[in-house]
Write a structure and sequence with these properties.
- Helix content is 18%, strand content 36%.
- By secondary structure, the protein is an alpha+beta fold.
- It has one domain.
- Strands 1, 2, 3, 4, 5 and 6 form a six-stranded antiparallel beta sheet that branches.
- It is globular and about 35 Å long.
């Protein structure tokens, strides 16, 4: 069975509620390849999951990236853990905080 997966347009939802997140819009303009964002994936009428995505390309306001987190119910969404996704700025739920690099050095 094929499941239609959508990415929620959070900017549209916020605007319909009278919210204009100027700070988020500014942060989105500063995004670079390698940065992480959160997107909310929708499957059917009731399934939704917000996941981190690592940006792999930015071109003319369009983004491409790979899932960087694990789905709680991967079978419901039909997405592989490192699936490639295309999205727009309006679909970015939030900017993920940078993760500290693992310490370098000798193994114990």
């Amino acid at each position: 069975m094929n499941v239609v997966i959508e990415i929620e347009n959070i900017d549209e939802i916020r605007r319909s509620e009278g919210i204009d997140d100027v700070e988020l819009h500014e942060d989105i303009r500063r995004l670079r390849v390698g940065d992480h964002v959160h997107l909310t994936f929708l499957a059917g009428a009731t399934l939704r999951e917000t996941l981190p995505v690592r940006i792999t390309r930015i071109r003319a306001g369009q983004f491409r990236g790979r899932l960087a987190g694990r789905l709680a119910r991967p079978e419901a969404f039909g997405l592989r853990p490192d699936a490639l996704v295309s999205f727009t700025a309006g679909q970015i739920h939030s900017i993920a905080k940078p993760q500290p690099a693992p310490p370098r050095g000798k193994s114990k």
